Amino acid sequence: MSNIQSVLEEKRLFPPSAEFSAKARLDKDKLAALRAEAEKDPVGFWAELARRNIAWQTPFRTVLDDSQAPNYRWFTDGRTNASANCLDRHLGTKGDKIAIRFEGDKGDTKTWTYRALHAEVCKLANGLKSLGVTKGDRVVLYMPHTPEAVMAMQACARIGAVHSIVFGGFSSGSLRDRIEDAGAKVVITADGNSRGGNIIELKKAVNEALSSGCKSVEKVVVLKRSGHDVAFDAKRDVWWHELLAKQSSNCDPEWVESEHPLFLLYTSGSTGKPKGIQHSTGGYLLGAHMSCLWVFDLQDSDVFWCTADVGWVTGHTYVGYGPLSCGATILMFEGVPTWPDAGRFWKVAQDHGVTIFYTAPTAIRALMKLGEEPPAKYDLSKLRLLGSVGEPINPEAWMWYHRVIGKEKLPIVDTWWQTETGAIMMSPIPGATATKPGSCTQPLPGIFADVVDEAGEAIKSVEAGGYLVITKPWPAMLRTIWGDNERYIKTYFGQFPGKNLYVAGDSTHRDKDGYYWIMGRIDDVLNVSGHRLGTMEIESALVSHPRVAEAAVVGRPHEVKGESVFAFVTCKGARPQGEEADKLLKELREHVGKEIGALAKPDDIRFSDNLPKTRSGKIMRRLLRSIAKGEEITQDISTLENPAIVSQLQGKA
Ligand code: WT7
Predict the structure, then answer these.
(1) What global pTM score does this model have?
(2) Quick one: which atom of ligand 1 is closest to the CA of 530?
(3) pLDDT of residue 272
(4) How far apart are CA 136 and CA 159, in angstroms?
(5) How far is Cα 482 from Cα 469, in angstroms, rounded to an integer?
């Protein structure tokens, strides 16, 4: 509620600058015209964009097939290839333009032109073919954030293989589960890499995952990055450089149906195991491409830096595909914002002449804490646009970004979207929209959002609070959950039966100007540093420890991370106290790190004899959330089975 109050009191309005608007792809009038077109004929609107912006080998005639809704299909009889759209189509006009600028953790730099990138991607694509990878096969990528990760995505796309990237921060156990769910034939990884000066043991984790299952995997391609010794299975493993040395730098793209899956990306849900979100080729690419042009106003001279790792959807749409499909220059940086010192991000931005900077509120808050001196040391005058994604950006962080990095003149685009939506759904258009700190403003042209009540009824007034829904299909939307279409239907379209609404899982407020303010998740999903974590996943990880009987995980507001993981744990045997409790606490944190990955480690763990349950046995999560926040308990606890437990949970007894 306090969050809702603070944003409702937010009255500041920042109109787009005349200077920016004058050069922008979209100004107010052009945006209004696009919106009007989309309103009039949403399907025709997307069809026209798809014809003009995507290179088709076979043009489509069917635009939207909704005969099996909510399994929507777009551009079904068209054929295209994502890699051809990102690379081949620029060779004639932009072959010598830099596609990727790269800076490693330790400061090493390298660039690739579109021609050079095309050649590498072709070699890898041929290499994958030589390993037996064909159209539709799944390839898991467990890689550092280096250009080779983009090459691997592009190479898979080129031959119609389906990539599934697992973030390098996930543990070997999480990696194994994802490899097995996808039934991957090949894994592409690296020996290891440096991040913030620490070695990330990628190959070691792959070895562990494969020794405990993953029977589908035939080959492992290993990029030499760290150069440190790793266990190598000569029959199964092949070095990237040895595989590519023998290959031709030409590889004809495999023209796939528009609906052919381009990639899977696993994300957390409120219950059970992670969901393999499946994206299509043509529709996804269209969303990625149009949003780059509209939201980032991508121009030929830009250097676009999206700081997200390729392991997240942002690193797919705004590193691996969108900007390349526009023929832009992107920057990839392997390291972390504040290593070796507090100015690293700003130094990287300066040294590479970054013009568009897209990052997450958690990074902005972390940088904000370090003060105004680090950014002041560097020349950031090339910057012309700032972006934010991953969680609601609090007005303080927004204002700091605006004042200290944006020098009070750069537009900020606060972009709301999800792994499932494929591309940005709501955002200001920088040359057209007046922004309000903390609001992602309005849906993009062709995207139809609304606010509904508990029964799924649209709230008629402009000013409204409730569930955020999307009312019409859009090309970049997910197609299904890999191997579990029932779960797809239930999770995204099952909340309000018969209404055919895509339910995002976020609650929202729409103000009197029709601007949207995202309030957070409505399900049991945490948003830690802009990454989704299911509370159930962390609870299961805790319970898999031999000492743990039961666990309940909730989120607690955190200054930098947005939310942190707070776990309430009951143990087998006596409740641990004193030194024993401290020891077990450390052990449990490590255990969760090992089971899921470091980002899921609980910041707080509290031991108690029982968890607070209603008489029907349901854990009272709302109560636990209040306790985690350190709030006074004002709610009715008379239905509690064991009211005495409350002071223990508060850490008082
Ligand atoms: C959830 C999706 C899509 C890229 C990264 C996260 C939250 C995302 C915003 C924003 C408020 C946001 C939502 C959403 N979220 N962007 N600009 N303002 N909330 O992808 O892991 O699929 O998470 O992140 O809660 O549902 P994801």
Answers:
(1) 0.94
(2) 6
(3) 66
(4) 9
(5) 23
State which H helix or E strand residue 223 sits in: strand 219-223
Distance 390 CA to ligand 1 centre (A): 4
Count of residues in the chain: 653
Give the C-alpha separation, 283 to 473, whole Å: 11
> What span, in angstroms and rounded, lies between the C-alpha atoms of 142 and 615?
45
* pLDDT at 641 exceeding the cut of 80: no
Residues contacting 34, CB < 8 A, separation 6+? 26, 445
pLDDT at 6 (0 to 100):
57
Segment 438-492, tens digit of pLDDT? 999 999 999 999 999 999 999 999 999 999 999 999 999 999 999 999 999 999 9
Q: Angle at Cα 95 formed by Cα 145 and Cα 92, nearest 5°?
A: 135
Pocket test residue of 518, 524, 537, 563 for ligand 1, highest count of atoms within 8 A of CB: 518
Residues 6+ apart with CB under 8 A from 87: 99, 114, 117, 118, 121, 154, 324
- Confidence category of residue 182, pLDDT binned at 50, 70, 90: very high
pLDDT of residue 2: 45
Of 275, 260, 58, which Cα lies nearest the Cα of 161? 260
- Nearest-angstrom CA–CA distance, 618 and 524: 14
Fill in the amino acid letter for 552.
A
Q: In one letter, which amino acid is 446?
A: G
Q: What integer pLDDT is reported at residue 269 of this predicted model?
A: 82
Tokens 């405990």 correspond to: 212
pLDDT at 524: 84
Provide the angle, in degrees to the nearest 10, between the axes of the packed helices 42-53 and 28-40: 120
State the chain's mean pLDDT as an integer.
95
Burial class (CB in 10 A: 0-12, 13-18, 19+), 609: middle
Instruction: Output the CA–CA distances (angstroms, integers) from residue 344 to 104, 105, 307, 553, in the order listed.
Output: 12, 10, 13, 34
Contact between 161 and 219 (Cβ < 8 Å) = no
State the Cα–Cα distance between residues 43 and 62, nearest whole angstrom.
Answer: 10
Beta bridge partners of 552: 568
Tens of pLDDT, residues 129-176: 999 999 999 999 999 999 999 999 999 999 999 999 999 999 999 999
Of all helices (H) and strands (E), which one includes residue 580? helix 578-595
pLDDT at 503 over 60: yes
Count other Cβ atoms within 10 Å, centred on residue 547. Answer: 15
Choose among 295, 180, 275, 325: nearest CA to 478.
275
In contact, 180 and 214? CB cutoff 8 Å: yes
Nearest to 638 by CA among 622, 615, 618: 615
Q: Residue 614 gets which letter from DSSP?
A: B
Residue 130 Cα to ligand 1 midpoint, Å, equals 39
CA of residue 511 to ligand 1 center, whole Å: 20
Give the ligand 1 atom nearest the CA of 268. 21
Nearest to 387 by CA among 350, 354, 419, 420: 354
